[in-house]
Amino acid sequence: xxxxxxxxxxxxxxxxxxxxxxxxxxxxxxxxxxxxxxxxxxxxxxxxxxxxxxxxxxxxxxxxxxxxxxxxxxxxxxxxxxxxxxxxxxxxxxxxxxxxxxxxxxxxxxxxxxxxxxx
Length: 119
What we know:
With 119 residues, this protein is mainly alpha-helical. It has one domain. It is 79% helix and 0% strand. It has helices at residues 5-35, 42-48, 53-79, 86-94, 97-116. Helix 4 runs antiparallel to helix 5. The longest helix has 31 residues, at 5-35. 15% of the residues are buried. The model has no long low-confidence stretch (mean pLDDT 94).
């Protein structure tokens, strides 16, 4: 599959962001696991995100912003007949949204190239 230069650069940018989005949040998750007596659970993650006005701002921004993007990812993935779209939703919660969203965008670019070239 030959990708246009612009699509190739864009897909590479998205993939680079996905890799950073997988590594960087988990550096902090692992630091928490290593140094805290509080178990690493979704409930504790949410509670920790609500301890101050600033953390509540960041947490609610994430939750509100992520919700429509996840819906769009599923709708767009199905529209483009991408395989295993559910993996991106699962990856949002198992790895990080900062990983899942740019990975979806990378794979979407690849799918658009296949559609454009009739594959």
